[in-house]
Amino acid sequence: MGVSIDRREITVILTILRRDRLSIFGIAVAAAFIATSTAVVILGSKLVPYDPTQVNMMLAFQAPSFQHLFGTDNLGRDIFSRCVIAAPIDAQIGFSIVGISVLIGTVLGSFSGYIGGKVDETFMRITDVFISVPTLVLAVVVAVALGPGVEHVIEANLVGWWPVYARLARAGALSLKESQFIEAAKVAGISRHKIILKHVLPNNISPILVYATLDIGNAILYASVLSYLGLGAQPPQAEWGRMVYDGQVYLVNAWWISIIPGVVIFAVALAFNLLGDALRDAFDPRYRK
Amino acid sequence: MHPVLEVHDLSVVFETFEGRYSALNSIDVTINESEVMGLVGESGCGKSTLALAVMGLLPRPHAKVPSGSITFRGKNLLSYTEKEMEQVRGTDISMIFQEPLTSLDPLFTIGDQLSETIQIKLQRAGGNAGWNSGKVKAEVVNWMKRVGLADPESAIERYPHEFSGGMRQRVMIAMALAAEPQLMLADEPTSALDVTTQVQILRLVKSLVSQVRASVLFISHDLAVVAQIADRVAVMYAGIIVEEASVNEIFENPLHPYTQALLSSFPKEKSIKKSRLEIIRGSVPNLTHIPPGCPFHPRCQLMKEGCSMARPELREISPGHKIACDRP
Amino acid sequence: MSNTGLLRLEGIVTHFPAKGAMFYSESGALVTGTIIHAVDGVDLSLDRNTTLGIVGESGCGKTTLAKTILLLIKPTSGRLYFEGREITNLSYADLAKIRPNLQMIFQDPFSSLDPRMRAKDIIAEPLTVVTNDREKVKKRVLEVFEQVGLTADQLNRFPNEFSGGQRQRISIARALATKPKLVILDEPTSALDASIQAQILNLLLDIQEQYKVSYLFISHNVSVVRHMSDRIAVMYLGKVVEEGPVEDLMSKPKHPYTSALISSIPKPNPKARREMAEIRGETPSPINPPSGCRYHTRCPFATKLCSDKEPQLQELESAHLVACHYPLNA
Q: Do A288 and B59 touch (CB under 8 A)?
């Protein structure tokens, strides 16, 4: 653990990633997802072929075709356009949940692990409480309490998400604590908090980042579930999870309304999982030899 | 003298991310019956690679053998299938390593592990012996005694982690010699031990090996250790053998500049305290960029023009004494 | 013992709780106890511009001793004096003021440098405790970098771009940056090839000559310690069993363990095989050290007195001390 990143490392990692077809799929889809989300934020509905909110009962329930790649829904709205427009929401949710968790968790976990003693024990008990509750249940409860809305989905998930990173960071800090270069820093007279910031945190980051990449897929999945339950983005805003829910009743006659957004969710979550997996292999010294 | 192992023109190349590197470059070495051959060299010289090649344990697919043969009992080991090699390992050719913890299975008692080897030996010698047979157990206890473990009867019920480093090495030696192999490979077996334990282990290996009449390839980075146990010594550098001679010759009359430099860089008993040691300038080359011609030439005091052109052959300069140098 | 000495240890004891630690006796029986007696009463002193070598095998406590002297571990009891002043109970912050004078070079060149820091930052770090002047720091870093035989163009590189020997040079540069009075070296060349070891030892000698720095040189390799030291202390199971001027101690050792240790060193001379004495048995566990003289279980000369009464360190000849009831070569 604690492989340093420099030019040589990056080349090695890219070479490994290029080799595996699954990871190429992962990178491709993940990249497409991020690119699309960014594009939508910048360009808005100019990007998509049809106005995602335009209701037109004449066009309702059209199966996927050349004009409507993903078909139209019960209100005649183009599903492809709606999927694209909805991308940034899940991107925002996924990256926020993971990003903030990494930040909070890594800092708190590193400090706790390095300092040890009572501070660490107390901290462990706190994280224990959070980890023992299934994340989804926790998220649902908090979201219900907070009410609908995208920010609340993020907050609800954060509650259960950060302790995992705290634990990861703590484990890393525990093993780093014994390293000779940390001893060298102590011998040099560097203060404790400087040691944590300068030596522990930077060396702790890579395993965490790898896990985080994997995790973005999960975060998106969880967010979709919450939206499906009605706790996330509210209509008429397009959102994948919500679309799956809304299209459920038409499953028999117009399966594409519900299934296609579901496939999109699945593909994006899978992409990040594969990417994270490939990254983890890339960092594993045994795999590389 | 009858050769037990004949390595001829052996080359081994590794393909890695960092590039292609040549671990062994056309190696010739022969080990005779009941002979202890010391193989000495610094990190990266290829000594461990040679042992792995003999045992058929080179990491495929990264390792490739572009040329050469390893002849053992008249057959080329390189042409053996994995199944055939499994028959050979542990019984005809055995190996002991630097760190016994990694080669002893933590989940089985040492008695169990040793009995596996002994069972195979007894089966080969004719007759059938299951684990419960008193014969196998008696042999196991006997070997524990021979390697000097106190209280062998209870020792065999214990697990590897319950023993100290020195004792684990003894168990390893028992496992390696119980099947009475013709050849034992020892890769830095004493490097992780205290110097007082090392003396015990070296003595033990020497006496057991002559009792069992096995030959040994003893690999070490430490010339002084090799001096204690070897009959002949081969010195390696960056994938080639630079000198080979009897142990007395190597230490009294080293001819290759690398061997000479290596010997003189040791702090000596009679040297003036705090005097500067003779050094070999530079460092061992990165194996992806081995210097052309003689790999040692950039660091050699006697280097001349021709040294960077052609790689010198390993030639016999006097009976039993070979060196790979054009400028002795 | 002179009071003007650089470093003085009085009765230093460092014990660890033995939770989870497992040691096994010779027959393989599990030894349980509550305390690891890593360092069990050590008195030492070190003057300026000298080298004290500490030799011993695994379990003797030399690494724990080094960490205790640096106060990386707090001694269980005893006192530590640096430049005449007691430092045993100083706070982390007060200690930081002394650190520039008391540095360490570690054994493993691969884990003693932060893999994420550039060479120049690694060396600059101890200087940041002393001064905020960036120019001064930069100048000093370059100066000491070149002194250890590396070139300025390598300053920006990361540790994994250097070889083992080069990394040790960086370690040495880091230890010297603040011009310390005392450097503790814990097996500084054990992880290096023989040819590189010679280079590093020469470098250490050059530096000592130039800076007049004192070394506490710890190693299991007796020939290396002998080469580098003025005096040697031999440790066994947490105690110093013999201490004296290097030539005397090596040629006429007084303690049976020292004698056995010296004769166990393999010499690069095949004709000297028979001379290697063999100590019987293995080092006992530091959890349950033997009674009386700790070496008595393995000593060929042991009597009942040895198992009953622990011998104290006594000065037999000028500045040559030994803890034995029946010293050799007396």
A: no
